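Everyone, describe these structure tokens:
***
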Amino acid sequence: MRRPLRVVVVATVMLVLVGGGGATVALTHPWSGQDAPTVPPSSTAVVERTSLSAKLVLSAQLEYSTPTTLVGVEGMLTRLPHPGDIVTTGQALYEVDGHAVLSFLGERPLWRAVEAGVRDGPDVQEVEQNLVALGFGENLTVDNTFTAVTERAIQAWQKSLGRERTGVIAPGDVVMVAAASVRVNTVTGLVGGSAAGAVLSYTDPGIHGRIGLSADQLSQLAPGMPVSVRLPGGTETPATIGVIDPGGAPTADPAKPTAPSARVDFADGSVVQGIGLPALRVTVGVGGAENALVVPVTALVALADGGYAVEVDVVGGPPRTVPVQVGLVADSRAQITAGDVSENDRVVVVG
């Protein structure tokens, strides 16, 4: 039998991490020879058969999505929104020359007037899609072609706004944004200043979490994994791991590439509205074992030539040293996956 060192592996188990700390499930290495410290007092514990689950506890910083800069066209800015304002499709985003510039959903800005006689193009389709979304799509086929039906839909939309029914949408009438609802992030334009150039930036109104990860933690997470987030009041709310960024992108400092991170998406985004952008605790289940044979980690003894053992208590005699294989380690308990150890045995523990 391999000689045990009753330098008990005071098995250090760290599965609770905050921020970028490394995820470790570590059993300390045995000391050798005369370097071994004094053995602490021991007692015994019962070997149990139970379920074991391992969890990571991380820290997620709440944040909005990366801002998008919105560029205006010519004219004088006569009204601007406030940071934090939420603007949906069809609502005024800002004002130029006393004329409200309305938010439309689209990937590209209008570069020409959309009117009768205009050549087919994706801008026509964007306008038609927005007219349908706003309830002015009766008999309207959404495509790249401007038709008499398109013109009537524009006129009906203009009438609802109290505007002249020209049947034309010019670049200064609407501004294309990347979502049906946006949150004003920053305002860079000035009332009385030119509308040509950057006017403001916006984000998606939803809030998500961002977890900074170590390399160890990165290997334990995957998109779609369920997590639980503790809110400031102490309640738990469900969420999932979203997009994972492996990091490694270059920065201004070549020696410091970007670190890995993961996005946390909330099942109900309203639970994090109005609480600011604090850091919240996120619990992730990263493993489990059903019907596992379990001992306290302080029962593990380091063997001189590697591996671990437990000392099984023997009535009327000295403890029996049994080499074991260790599986999952969590909550200061270790799973025994192989070894002559049975449920209800008593093993020697330190402390």
User: Anything to note?
Assistant: The longest helix spans residues 148-161. The chain has a mean pLDDT of 87.
